[in-house]
Amino acid sequence: MATPNIADQSGQNTTPEKTYTISELLESFPTLSYRIHVFVFDLRSFREKSDVQESSQARLNESLDLLYLSAPYFTPEEVHAMKHTLVGARALETFVQESLDERLERRAKKRQDSKDFRICCAHDLAPGLRGSFQHRPEAAREG
User: What is the value of pTM for the model shown?
Assistant: First the structure.
């Protein structure tokens, strides 16, 4: 039975968002594991010089989300569920943002002279996402 929406006096919905564990998320969305594999692959191969890199870059450039959690990789329902998936005690969105903030802070210290503070998909974003989903690239090959 679905939880009814409960509104407070201001009319705001006060029903807590459903949260998922990683296993619940992957069970709820059977193709998500493969989609995550492609997404992490694209993040990691973004700077490689090859035809694969061009495809990866094209897909990443289609994403409109700051953390790249959107089409063409994921459906809106998957994104919503992913952002409400718990990694430890934090939501995935918070986990990835904090991981990225940490990396950017370290990068800022290293890059003061060059003034190049852009994130690197392969080195900054991919490790946080791969770690949060306990993604193992070899698992996709095992099939």
Answer: 0.65
